[in-house]
Every structure is written in C-alpha cells, then in structure tokens.
Design a protein that fits this description.
The chain is α+β, with helices and mostly antiparallel strands. The chain folds into 2 domains: 60 residues; 98 residues, Jelly Rolls (Sandwich), CATH 2.60.120.380. Helix content is 39%, strand content 34%. It has a 4-stranded antiparallel sheet with strand order 1-8-3-6. A 4-stranded antiparallel sheet has the order 2-7-4-5, with no helix packed on it. Helix 1 packs antiparallel against helix 2. The two termini are 27 Å apart. The relative contact order is 0.25.
C-alpha cells in the first residue's frame, strides 16, 4: 500500500504535467494566430486603414501597436468595431511607439485607423493581433493547475519529512 505522501506526490506530478501541456498548447495557438503587420507611408493630413483579416469574436483581446519612424511625426490611432464604434484611441508624436489593447465588444472584422496629423509624410509600422478568450482561460486554468500541483508537491515533501522523523523517533535514533 502506498503511503499518503506518495499518493499526493503522484497527484501533484499529474497536475503539473497537465498544466505544462495546457500552457504549451496555448502558446502554440497564440503563435499560430499570426499578427498582421504593415510598414506604411502616410501623406500629410491623410489616414491609413488596416483591416484585420481574422474574424474577431466578442470577448477576444485585440492588441495594436504603432511604431513611428520620424522625429516630427504626429499620429492618431484607433480601432474601429464592425458597428463603427471607435475604441482604443491613442496619440503618438515623434519617434516612439504606441500600444493599446481592448476586449472586443462586437464580432466581425475590426479596422485599425492611423491618421497623420503632421504637415509632412510620415512612416510607421502597424501591427494588429488578437488572443482568443478561450486561450486566455486555458492559460489561467493551466497556471492554476501548476500552482495547485506545486503546493501538493510541497505538502507531500513535508509529509515525507515528518514520517521520517516519526520513524526515527520510534526506533530510538533521535
């Protein structure tokens, strides 16, 4: 018959392995859902529209970044929902970057709009990507399982140590 600490240790090993598999699968899915990026040149006073080609589901996390390559650049960026609602509005001036995220309120194709507010042509790199809410929940569940497995492993090690101390006292070795 297995001792209690061995049962707990085996359970903790199983939980940790399941957690690692879940987290690894989530990372693979995040990597496979590639972002859409473009290097653009925008005329003074005009705007550029980048439509994300992946259908977004309500509850997905949308991220965008804008990297300006001109010290005199002045951009306004925003995400536009399929319903026309403007979200995640941000400004960037000079060389630098802007990163925003939003939880999708609507399903469909979202568009990143970048407007050049400067009086000269400006260059920027636009990137849009998403993380499905299912992947987010899988990561949270995997991390929770990992923490539970680690705590159970510590409990089993503590029980093993206590059992060893008890058996030494019984034999009169202490």
């Amino acid at each position: 018959m297995l001792r209690d600490y061995k049962k707990i240790a085996r359970l903790s090993y199983i939980l940790i392995v399941i957690a690692i598999v879940l987290i690894a699968l989530s990372v693979v899915f995040i990597i496979s859902d590639s972002p859409q990026s473009e290097d653009v040149s925008i005329q003074a006073g005009s705007s550029y529209h980048l439509t994300y080609n992946v259908t977004i589901k309500q509850g997905d996390y949308l991220f965008y970044s804008v990297i300006a390559n001109n010290s005199r650049a002045n951009f306004t960026a925003c995400l536009v929902a399929p319903t026309g609602a403007v979200t995640a509005l941000g400004n960037i001036t000079g060389n630098g970057s802007l990163k925003k995220d939003v939880v999708a309120s609507d399903s469909g194709n979202w568009t990143l709009i970048l407007k050049n507010n400067a009086n000269l042509n400006a260059y920027a790199r636009l990137t849009v990507y998403r993380i499905s809410y299912l992947i987010t929940y899988t990561i949270v569940f995997g991390v929770s399982l990992f923490a539970s497995g680690f705590i159970l492993l510590l409990v089993s090690l503590n029980l093993r140590r206590r059992e060893g101390n008890y058996s030494r006292r019984q034999r009169g070795l202490d």
